[in-house]
Amino acid sequence: MKALMTASVLALAMLSAGAALAQTPPPGNHGNRMAQIAILLDLNETQKGQVQTILQGEHAQMKALFEQSKAAGGKPDFQALHAAHQQISQDTLSKLSGVLSQTQLTKFQALQQLHHGFGHHGPPGPPPASSPTQN
């Protein structure tokens, strides 16, 4: 039972990782994540504040979703959690589209994909070996 609870908590934590971009990095992590995003997306001062506010809102929603699921006890409905996570992420992108240029939004989406890929599954490995062809 304890293993199931641990697995559930870890799965919920992974769902909320999308909002991790807006969090202050843990001690020992070099630099401020928001400052990194600002540099990578070439944000102006107005955009920095707006993007930070949007990402903090996303983080708060993800945290509330996690806490709500945790408080409900029992086995979490991972399909419902995933759907809620997707909706929150989509809402965030919609809000960001009013702040960022199309180029900046595309870069943000690429950064999110990299963050999710490297953060949860490790770096991509070599492509699978192709099946031998017969001559």
Overview of this structure, please?
The N and C termini lie far apart (55 Å). The chain is mostly helical. It is built from 5 helices and no strands. It is elongated and about 45 Å long. It has one domain.
SSE blueprint:
Elements: H1 2-15, H2 33-41, H3 45-72, H4 78-97, H5 102-121
Throw out a few tags for this protein:
135 residues; disordered C terminus; mainly alpha; 5 helices
Principal-axes shape call: elongated
Low-confidence stretches: 4-31, 119-135
Q: Between the first and last Cα atoms, what is the distance in angstroms?
A: 55 Å
Share of helical residues: 55-70%
Structural class: mainly alpha
Count of strand segments: 0
Major sheet summary line: none
Order of helices and strands: HHHHH
Let me know the average pLDDT: 73
**What is the number of helical segments per DSSP (H or I, 4+ residues)?**
5
Write a brief structural summary:
The chain has one domain. 67% of the residues lie in helices and 0% in strands.
